[in-house]
Input
Amino acid sequence: MADSNRQAGRKNSIPAQALVCLLAIAAPCGSASAAPAVGELDPNQMWEILLGGIAGVSFLLAIGIWILAAFRRARNALAQRSAFISSALNTLNQGVMMTNAQNRVVFCNDRFLEMYGLSRAEISSKMTGRELLELRRARGLLNLTVEEFSKLARRPEGVVTDLPDGRSVLTKIFRLPNGGTIGTHEDCTQQRQLSRKLASTTKFLESVLDNVPVCVAAKNIEDGRYIFVNRAFERFSRFSRDRIVGKRADEMFRPETAKSIEAADQAALTAPDGHHHNEYVVQRSDEERVLSANRVIARNENNKPEFLITLFDDVTDRRSLSRELESTKKFLELVVDNIPVSLIVERVSDGRYLLANRSAETILNRRREDATGLTAADIFNPREAKLIIARDEAAIKKRGLLTEEHPISTKDGLRLFLTRRMTVLDEAGEPQYLIKTHEDVTDRRQTESRMAHMAYHDGLTDLPNRAAFLQALAQMIEACAGTDEEFAVLCVDLDGLKEINDVFGHAMGDKLLIEVAGRIQACARGGVVARLSGDEFGLIIDGTQPEAGKALAEKLAQTLSDEFVIDGKSVRTGVTTGISVFPHNGSDAASLLANSGAALFRAKQKSRGSISVFEPEMDQQIRDRRVLHQDLSMAIRNGELSLYYQPQAAAGPTIGTSKIIGFEALARWFHPVRGFVSPGEFIPLAEESGLIVEMGVWILREACREAASWPEPMQIAVNLSPAQFMHGDVVSLVHSILLETGLAPDRLELEITEGVLIEDFDRGLALLRRLKALGVRISMDDFGSGYSSLSYLQAFPFDKIKIDRAFVMNLGRNPQSAAIVRAVIDLGHGLEMSIVAEGVETQEQLGFLADEGCDSVQGYLLGKPQPIGHYAALVGRSAANDAETERKLASA
Output
């Protein structure tokens, strides 16, 4: 501004300068002409010259005055124009700042100073544009460097500066023809705020549209090109947004799909209200999809169609689900109609039945269609209706599941129903429906009653079983505890039941048990009687003990000694009894029953038909037996068992002529504390406890492994327990062991007793046939000691029969034994079976058997059971090698 004023001053001094110049020119000329003859001129000439000079000067002065006036008018006009321009620029909403070619600030309008909080006094006459920017920067009014600001402001879009008070200023700098610049500064705070709001709103709307599950697309009506699609559209079309925007439908989709889209678009454009809904099929990849679409026309400010907005959803799966739902509904209706449980739906507001399935017709006593719309009072008799309505109201009040049993009259009479009531609430949480199911449990409850009876009663005799007996015993103990009263527990074992089953069959044995149960109940006279196991009964008798117990036991023995006539056959039996006394022999049910069992065991050891009262040492024997059982189970795992081998020889007149043909493997147990335990002690214990199965597997595997290592292919005989036939697949076991050890099947001989066939004849016979199919030999052990040996010989072709030692040991002393042995040999040969006699201990027995044609013999005369090393030479091994082998096995 100061520079501008200075320029105006310079322009006003031009006329004065011109006048001075003219005077300077005129003055010398006058002097030159007068100078030579000043003294010579006359006064007239002097006056002429003087007047001419005055006239010239006046002329020149007039010219100068005119020039000065002209310049003054020009200066006033310029000042007026400057004032007008300044006034105009100062009234602008934009700030203006101008610089000259030397970058000096020549003008700043008031808006510029106001915008940046500056005063005119701060803008000096020599301030440059850079200095002004540095001043702004120093006051925090510029957040860029001068170079950055100048460069950015010269761009067409300018640069925005954020001021500390939150305002934003858009600056643009333009270059002038004279080399200077003019800068415009516009407050764009509100515009930027609106822009941000618009951007935020746009982003929000795009985010909303991007996250709605419905596909959204917008296109120009003019050219049909897409201008926007959301993410759902991208996912459906499987095209990216960048690929879709700017394209037409026919440029992206198959012709059929594009044609469907264009037809729907045209329908929307021609619709009166600019809205169109339809469903159509489009092709996506290799599948067809059904779309449900809504199209809306968006108009501009002139109410002319400009955009077409499409909102559509893939309803293919929904349609499929709808069809599936309808199918499921029909299926469920079919299921509900055919479930064996009665189902009724009742409306809570008036108690009327809305739905009933076919099964409900039983309790409704009418067709379900006829029951719809009726109430319980309309259907049932007053007494039943009152009960049903009361229970319905209780369930509604509970608002949950209510379950109960109650009788309902049906065409089949009074039946017991299990009814479940469930309340269904409406959206307001108020009861709306009551779902009731009725299940006829009459037969079930009767069955459960019978099962409960069976759980505590024997199915054959209908006597209380062991569980019921223990309960009664516990109640008896509780009643007598703290008093001086006594009672006895009797364990009664029926003698000879096994033999009766073997001779007459199990049906006869069952009938005998029923008769025995009746006689025992009659003798007990109201006392507790129970069947504890197959042939064992339990009784509880009060009174002075043990006298009362013994008296009852003797009475039982006398009563049961009388013959029983069953199915026209006369059979006899007896009983052996063990007695324990409360409180002397135990204070709990288990102890009393166990001690009476111990007394029964002792009575059996004495003789059948005996009566034994428990004594403390019996308990010790039982404990010792239990300890021995535990030790035996550990012995199998700890390798304490070993096999001894007893030779079998072809029967010759003398020992020398009796050639060894094989061995029988026999288990032996050397206890680390007890020492050698007799087989007669641990074998029965293993059979009673079931350990014989595990032990039998070990014996069979070890015997086969040993025999397979012999150079001489001799026979090896192994005993199989009946328990091994009852538990597991003995055929698979033998087969796997033969494969494992490599022993030829024809070298293995399995010895069985008739007990294998007694327990389950058909199963035992089938297993023996399968075993023989493997190629092994089957031998009947202890022939003649049972009752059914002959019938078993007829049913199964045994390879060998072993005559029981009881007959062999009496040869030479008992003619009957000789006759039996002779008959067995003839019988076996007649059936083409080999005969083995075991228990041969004298030369006389050997000679008799050889003379009678017995095939082979076994006994102490030929050799005692010994470790195989003792017979190393017989199996083809040296004694030294065999000892070394046994030593290695022992160390392993």
Remarks:
- Confidence is low (pLDDT under 50) at residues 1-38, 888-892.
- The first helix runs from residue 2 to 12.
